[in-house]
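Weekly structure sync - notes
Attendees: PM, LS, DV (DV joined late)
Agenda: review two folding runs queued last week.

Item 1: First target. Sequence and structure tokens pasted below for the record.
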Amino acid sequence: MKKFPVWCWILLGFLGFAGPAISQPIFIDQPIQAGDLIVFPHITDTTKYYYLPNKLGLGTDAKGKIQFSFLRYVQNIKTENGEANRTEGEGGGILHTLVELKVTDQQIAQAQAELKKKVKRPNAVIVGPVIYKGGNFSLVSSFAEEGSEFTKKVVGVGRAPVFVGNKAACSIRLTKLGSKILWESCKTPTPDLSFSFVMDFSGYRSPMQAKIEVDWDKVYSHEGFSAGIGINTGYVGLGVDIKAAFDELREQGAIKVTNFGADDKMEALLETAYKKIVDMMFEPFSMPAANDQSTIDQIARGINSIAEGAKKNASLVSLNFAYEMKKQRKTGKFVIDLSKSTIETISFRFDENLGSDVSKCKDCFRQINLDDPLYKQREILVSVDGLNADQFSKYINFVTVSMKKDHGTATATTDEVRIAQKEFQDAAGNPFRLLYGWKDNADYDRDAWLKYKYKTIWSFFGDYTVEKDWSESDNLGLNLAPPFHPVSISVEADPNLMKDAGIRLATVKFYYDYGAGEKVEQVTLRGTDPAPAQLAEFMLKQGEYDYDYEVVWRMFGNKTLTSGRKKSSDTLLYVDEIPESAKMVTN
């Protein structure tokens, strides 16, 4: 039976533990396999290394028991007039599990011993983990297709945990047939339940004696960029298709990669060049609003067609590897200088099967008869997506989620949760919960009982509020995203050029407005830094990419120059050259 992932709405908002804005001081292009772990060297201290937490396991509670449950249920149904006698009731199953990033002390100790042998340094030490900036997880299973003969609902994709020990949750509501088959599959050594994690982390790429020249007009006119999924979001394509288009554009001269160094570095150089261009042209593809079902169906059909064409390249095609072209296109020619250390964010994928441990947990499997509706209740899991803890505390005062359940009578159930900074941090990646139960005979219609209404109110600092309308849903989880999106701008410089130009330090101020009035984000590069590069992160309204910025150069001799306020949408700024239009700042 064919297996493929299905992408649904997010159950947990793990961005509350997203990585810091400033990248870790590691060279990401110098990985070392040490035992079961991959480690990266510090950019200046040759004795320090950081390990990549790329191991998964079933979540465990405080007592060490695995956090996995599989419930099969049956509901007795009377035979209706004109029907043949029923010999079976209606039923199904609910599977819920937690999976966590799990690296043991033994694995770290073995990796450190192996590292010392490989680098031939007895004082080499693994000082800690690489901190992920974020990432996604997805369920890979024959039971992951929502609406199939096996499965009714799936919450099997979401923001992944970024720290070792943090967890991600998956929940599946199965049909009667699906619950029977998966019940038996869980008794095998390799049950049909696997997870795929695609995680992002940042670091420094070693300088390369090379440059990249891009003719944007020719790049955008390539026929490959008009063959993506035909949806109202514009071009959406897989990374493998974009790379193929870049290869053709390089042969045609629209993308020129000049290598002044060794030929054996050309493959790594092309990888770096393509990554830079992708970051400037595209952004990771994101699903539309949950209530826009027609668009979701259209995307699903498009993704399936792409998957058929990509079978030769991979057996698993997922949205984690899809990119959406930015609406604002670039023109003219652009040169990217790679002769200095640059900050890059890379994606790393790893997969794991739940394994045979689930079959050993007898308490994890239960079968019940739903013959007493009085005890029915339903929890709606609420998570906040798109923000880490620092971003939440910086921009958001609180978000209120209200739920209203109509039972078909005059009495409705209401519930509400208010999420401020303290609640967001204390949740530790766990979802918030709304609750309703069974009221009276009107709730015997199980499909109708699963439906409820909800609305959100976002309160931002600066006395700015966004209130959404009531929406209807029957999803087990609500994933809430603010009406703005994060933007990351890499500010880079060559220390030699800064020294030659007499630049002591360069300060870049970014001006932005996500709806609460103009705000300022600032980063500073010093000529004495071993790798002058910083990452500025701020927020813009959804669909907007333009921002204003100003560069202020502090020169030797107590002289200050300014670029004046400029507008841009680039994700990369160089500040090691002073333009002729720069003006003197007078005190």
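Item 2: Second target, run right after the first with the same settings.
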Amino acid sequence: MTTQGTPKVNQIPALLLTGFLGAGKTTLLRALLSSPDAADTAVIVNEFGEIGLDHHLLVGASETMYLLENGCVCCTQRDDLEASLEDLYWARLRRKIPWFSRVIVETTGLADPSGVFAMVSGDTLAGIRYVWQSVVTLVDGVNGSETLEAHAAAAQQAAMADHLIISKTDLAADIGDLRRRLQILNSDARLHQASRGALGASLDALMQPAPGADARRLGLSGGPLHDAGITSCWLHFRPSLPRLEFDAAFADLTEKFGVDLLRAKGIAHFAGDPKPSVLQYVAGGTIEITPADLAADAPAGLVVIASKVSPGEVENIFVAHGLGPYLVAEDHKGHAH
């Protein structure tokens, strides 16, 4: 995959969508894919943890969607990403799937973009089929400054971007300091703002690289920058989950672990509710519980990503409220990717 520039004959343009945990990548992706100019877009979704959830939250957004489960694009799933890109290419050529003219690769919130470039560049099959057009990085407008300071992966994502999107501007009191930090990290990137996924720039505009992109990426290229001690676990929820018990358990979880509880995302079928609910939590905030139209096979459960917190500690809190034991998978500790 060529790193950046005008596609050669038969090369497919690709966009890398990244951003730290909870920045709003899925919300933005859903909004982008709903626009008419994205009708011929293929998507590769990656989810940190044993159980992938984002493809269920994106049901109906695109006819062609690949989910890479069980790890980060830039780490354990490198071979899978390259294979998925190759499979997409041949399925498209043989007309087994709808024709697409571009690909969006959404990384996990812990991914270092340089790992993706190193994997699918040069003379590999994926390197011949595709060309990286741009890197789009979301930065949380509420917690972005603290995240950039605390997590090397977040700073690397911002530094490699062609487009920086400050999300959740409707919830942020002031983004002036965050804008200044981003300018210092990456003065070449085009800066955008988004609210609830709404963005003034089109997908075609986001596909355009920033000046000097290749040189900047080469200078920043390195190994994975995942923060040591980060773990994820998957808690399976039974049908007809009691809402009061869940609310109490999650309140205890946030009170005990505070900012070390980085991210939680899941789906629950609460007792008495006609629709399943999407669960979303980002460090320092409150959990959002939103009824949604989801696929029938949407897994009921919660992915919890935390720093210096064991999966067993998470499970014990839910067990104490009569909601377990339901820990069915645990994954990824520090640099063991």
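Discussion on item 2: Residues 78-93 form the longest helix (16 residues).
Action: LS to circulate a short write-up before next sync.
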